Amino acid sequence: MNSRTRHLLPAGQSKEDYPIMVLLVDDQLMVGEAVRRLLASEPDLDFHYCSDANVAAAVAKEMKPTVILQDLVMPGTSGLELVRRYRSDPLIRNIPVIMLSTKEEAATKSEAFAAGANDYLVKLPDRLELTARIRYHSRAYLNQIQRDEAYAALRESQQALLNMNMELQRIAKLDGLTGLSNRRYFDEYLSAEWPRAAQDHEALGVLMIDVDDFKRYNDTYGHLAGDEVLKAVARTLEHHCRPSSDLIARFGGEEFVFVSAALSADGVRQLGDTLCRAVEALGLPHRASRVSPNVTISVGGALAYPAQGGTPMFLIEAADKALYQSKEAGRNRTSV
Ligand code: GH3
Ligand code: MG
Ligand code: MG
Ligand code: MG
Questions:
Q1: 171 class by beta-carbon count within 10 Å (0-12 exposed, 13-18 middle, 19+ buried)
Q2: How far is the CA of 41 from the centre of ligand 1 (A)?
Q3: What pLDDT, on a 0 to 100 scale, did the predictor assign at position 18?
Q4: How far is the CA of 130 from the centre of ligand 4 (A)?
């Protein structure tokens, strides 16, 4: 039983134990008594009576009957007007309405159906016919609620699947340790950025970033401490990444890669220097390092103009060569 049915039926009721509930709206108390007597011998029918047209809609909303027997001619608000009122209220608009009237003209009946009535009986109807129609309309109504409920549950589970799918797609792009984009997403991103930059006649800058003497770090402080260093370095690199033009990813192991569509060759070098200084300034002790008492990185940068040809792979290889030069030249520096 979901929220939808709970709001259509009174609290705590399920469809199975929900009796057929009849609400008679008729200004004549004698009619009210007569219908009560007609239905008294039907144990599955729960009878309620309202003589005041002004409160009928409110009573229906409160009671949520499975069928409304609606008098046609009432002082003040007419029966047709009341039917229209039920139909305009989302909480009760689907409750079936059987019109009760002394009028037998086809035109009157036609008008009642046009206003939204489901059925029309001439007063006072025969007990067998009245109860048959009450049961028929109530059952149809309760079945409709059940279909709505099943449909809502289906929609809910479809939405849950969609959400799960979106979450999986998001996670599939991320590196588990650092939360940065992973290698797979980096490759995808660069393959898409390349033709985009070619079309816009923009340059693409790539910086390969590698933690210095990291094997020695692990050997000295342990692999778990090494993981913490990778996370701290990742946060620092991420800090310099502008989402509108840049992507920072974990390339693999202790290597990261930065790609930017907003850099000149000078910009690549400056960004590399900034990143080197920022990581060293973290002050993460590295007593086994041959470079510095703190953890440092080396950076290799390269710039390409995709409009002039080439491939993303050449750009990465160029940055990798520059990184090798930084390592050769003593580490904790940038080469372009
Ligand atoms: P260099 O300055 O030349 O880069 O020396 P290096 O020791 O950093 O380079 P090397 O390639 O010899 O070693 C890289 C080390 O990074 C070895 C490997 O165990 C470690 N490493 C790679 N991935 C991880 C990781 O996810 N966590 C930890 N703690 N260590 C990692
Ligand atoms: Mg009347
Ligand atoms: Mg390495
Ligand atoms: Mg290294």
A1: exposed
A2: 87
A3: 65
A4: 87
